[in-house]
């Protein structure tokens, strides 16, 4: 996938799915579908010729720091076929207007992975600033979608709003784009068992510990993806070693407490990372170890009140599995909320409860 935050480096022409797409839930998938082509055998993809001047990321993308864009291991062959493209905003408009950081259901790397799996070949992250916020609906369509992205057709959700003060509706977009010969597909609002599918509904379900409901709306389990880092190693002293996950700083966390989970161990990667303020490219050495079949586990999210913890942590205990996980990337799929976080009078009391949590998790995941 080609990922860029600069309109000058966007590949054109495009077929555009427009929106925020946080969560890439079932409703979002329906918005993406109209821009996906039926791939023919004549479509040729060739390897990218060089990674000079860029750096390889863990997800296989190449980021070119000078051009502010990423590239996957292939480039689309030169043709007039509109590139299936998701256009979204960075930062999220609510974050821009409130000035408050917004936790995301799918931080960028996770969003890229999910959109790639759907068949999207380009992600354009429009910088949302005052200039962008002040564009009228007419200006947004003409200058951004038509002139710069050369959109051949566009897909949006029925409730999509755009332009200064959110004054433009999906119907307005359809009318304005028609002046330029651009067709707009308006996708009806999707429901699941009578409830509207939305990122807000998913967030609320997660905050309430209603994991099954959140997963239904997403169309897949909610996941936490992070690298295993050094912890206090308290778990191993009571017979329950845990992997401490370092998540993206802007990852949305569900209700604090204990969960039954399934854990996948991704390919081992050893990364020599330069400082973010240093322009020296990173070096990534990938081992050929396969992704391991998901393992049953128990996860705790919270402050660990029994040991007077301060900062929130994410700790995972794998059932019936032992090994060295330091430096590896885990994908933790949440299946069921078991209980809220609580403080125990002693480590022995905590140990007894974890034993019960593991038994319950086995039952839930069997």
From TrEMBL:
Gene Ontology MF term list: FMN adenylyltransferase activity; riboflavin kinase activity
Domain Riboflavin kinase: residue ranges: 217-366
Keyword Thylakoid among UniProt keywords: no
Gene3D superfamilies given in the database record: HUPs, Riboflavin kinase-like
Source taxon at top rank: Bacteria
InterPro entries: FAD_synthase (IPR015864), Riboflavin_kinase (IPR023468), Riboflavin_kinase_bac (IPR002606), Riboflavin_kinase_bac/euk (IPR015865), Riboflavin_kinase_dom_sf (IPR023465), Rossmann-like_a/b/a_fold (IPR014729)
EC number: 2.7.1.26, 2.7.7.2
Biological pathway: Cofactor biosynthesis; FMN biosynthesis; FMN from riboflavin (ATP route): step 1/1; Cofactor biosynthesis; FAD biosynthesis; FAD from FMN: step 1/1
Keywords in alphabetical order: ATP-binding, FAD, Flavoprotein, FMN, Kinase, Multifunctional enzyme, Nucleotide-binding, Nucleotidyltransferase, Transferase
SMART domains: Flavokinase
Pfam families to which the protein is assigned, alphabetical: FAD_syn, Flavokinase
Reactions catalysed, as given in the entry: riboflavin + ATP = FMN + ADP + H(+); FMN + ATP + H(+) = FAD + diphosphate
Family: Belongs to the RibF family.
PANTHER family per the UniProt record, alphabetical: RIBOFLAVIN KINASE, RIBOFLAVIN KINASE/FMN ADENYLYLTRANSFERASE
Protein name: Bifunctional riboflavin kinase/FMN adenylyltransferase
Organism name: Floridaenema aerugineum BLCC-F46
